[in-house]
Amino acid sequence: MLSFRDFVRLGADQQYAQSNPLAAAFFRLVGPLGTHARIRNARVINTLWGMDLNGKRVLDVGCGHGYTLFWLARRFPGATLLGMDIDAAQIAGCRRATEATGVENLHFRPGVYTDLPDDAAYDLVIAIDVLEHLHEDEAMLAKIATVLRPGGTVVIHVPLRHQVQRRILPAFRAHTVHDHVRDEYLPHEIVEKVTRAGLQVDRLAYGFGWWGELGFELNNLFWQSRLLRNLTALATLPIALWAGYRDACSRLPFGNSMVLLASRPHTSGRVILSQSEIG
Q: Tell me: the pLDDT tens digits for 149-163?
């Protein structure tokens, strides 16, 4: 499992993307202010735990700030990693970070999944909180199946449908994300979509249980006011980090997100988990 120190340091490479010296110093000391991205990236890293990616090609579609990619690049210097994102500013920040840190096996480029070639070139594809932003989520899953080598692995992290998420504080019971194009996913829905794309579902687990939700809500108290939210996030950061790490390293019976491990079969057979396995 990911160590607590590495959990705290997830995202610290973004210090080199900061134009404000105070912000850069903060990132250098304690990493980013938020824990939400840490939790979901740590859950993905823990899902990959035990795999040897040296000599493998890895693609992160919708990589954002590249938290998982920077960690994997250092752990597996023999791997070749590529991050793609539609946000050119985020890609520019990631490129500055790779140059400043000297990570030579990690590359970033702006783009979307439709820019990918159709050849099966990757041993591992990662998509963290991307599908809920796309109307054409099944088209992206089909493209992932195309670029994945037979026997290759895909890890997908998505939020649970917000209407059934479990919140702690009353202020968050009506919390939604404005740029989600659908009401997120139920377990059987994401499994069915991945299976229709021609991928074999191997495992589905939950993230953001009670502790992860606590870390998220502490980080986002007064979420309608940026100033108050940031001040509260700073004051509660030690508790939020501890709660987030506990969540990311726990096996949960239920949570507000899901991480799905799938693979491209060597044959055309498709497997779907039973209802008892997907919760």
A: 999 999 999 999 999
